[in-house]
Write a structure and sequence with these properties.
binds N-(5'-phosphopyridoxyl)-D-alanine; 6-stranded antiparallel sheet; globular; 9-stranded mixed sheet
């Protein structure tokens, strides 16, 4: 085991009501998450030890549970208390929490869930590092790929095999990531992110639907854009829109907005992170700083 891996193993995780070292956290092989991928998850960024956009993440968690008929095992206060407790057990100012809820353990494997299962709740946290300087300066390369996923991508399900396959396919083609195109020719999202493009100073992004995850970062970007009078428009996009975009960004909780500078081997715009991204990136940092300041004022 590497030094890094052994450090990770000393991390504290939350599992079904207990905080314990990761090395001691064990779940049953009969957990439906393990056997069927029967569960949902959330990823929540934490800045200066405060959960960012928590109401939005909580709402999406509840929506995902409801969509797959897993009873919500905790109330709103208990969710917050549990995750805040986890954050406090770690030294990092900025973190990201992975939270997963599966339908629970069922001794006889059966596609049909038994009644009265107890959901398995698991959460752990990691240091959240700022985007590396290379990405900020040069952006990333993506390829467009057929979206091979199911028709309920609005649910944050743990069954991510197609996402993993598309990420691998992107890597095999020498790219960092993929932008997914539906069978109907519409842009859906990235393999683990939403897509925003810039055209003539306006931000364009596909509307929320069952084909994409309603990203919290996308929502924050909408708010920030509104504050700064940058038009934010939801509309269907196709491959030609991507090919003729001035800028393309991928947005997610762990990476905020990442500029895409190459699509299918061709430069996006002038092949460098664009001016609207530069502005939005700064506004996003200001928004985070204001969020932290508000929390600090409220606790004085
Ligand atoms: N993924 N679409 C997909 C398919 C995603 O997996 C994600 C995030 C997003 C962006 O959502 P948000 O802005 O709320 O993070 C969109 C997380 C980070 C993950 O799976 O690790």
């Amino acid at each position: 085991m590497s030094q890094n891996e052994s450090l990770v193993m000393q991390q504290i995780v939350y599992l079904n009501g207990e905080y314990l070292p990761m090395a001691d956290s064990k779940i049953s092989t009969q957990d439906r998450g393990f056997l069927f991928g029967d569960g949902i998850y959330e990823v929540i960024p934490v800045y200066q030890r405060k959960l960012f956009a928590w109401p939005e993440h909580l709402q999406r968690l509840k929506n995902s549970l409801q969509a797959v008929s897993i009873p919500n095992p905790l109330n709103d206060e208990e969710w917050l208390e549990m995750l805040t407790g986890l954050v406090k057990k770690h030294p990092w100012e900025n973190q990201f929490i992975y939270l997963q809820v599966t339908r629970g353990i069922q001794m006889q494997r059966d596609h049909m869930p038994a009644d009265c299962l107890h959901p398995t709740i698991y959460a752990y946290t990691n240091p959240l590092k700022p985007l590396n300087a290379k990405i900020l300066t040069h952006g990333i390369k993506v390829v467009s790929l057929e979206d091979i996923r199911w028709l309920r991508c609005d649910t944050k399900a743990i069954t991510l095999l197609p996402n993993v396959m598309m990420k691998l396919a992107a890597k095999q083609q020498g790219a960092d990531d993929a932008i997914l195109i539906s069978r109907g020719g519409k842009v859906t999202e990235g393999s683990a992110s939403n897509v925003v493009i810039v055209k003539e100073g306006k931000l364009l992004t596909p509307p929320n639907s069952q084909h994409i995850l309603p990203g919290v970062t996308r929502l924050v970007i909408e708010k920030v854009a509104n504050q700064h009078h940058i038009p934010f428009i939801e509309r269907e996009l196709d491959l030609t829109d991507l090919q003729t975009a001035d800028e393309i960004w991928l947005t997610s909780s762990t990476k905020e907005a990442v500029p895409v500078t190459q699509l299918d081997g061709k430069e996006v715009g002038d092949g460098r992170p664009g001016p609207v991204w530069q502005k939005l990136h700064q506004h996003y940092q200001d928004y985070k700083a204001e969020f932290i300041a508000q929390y600090t004022r409220a606790s004085l």
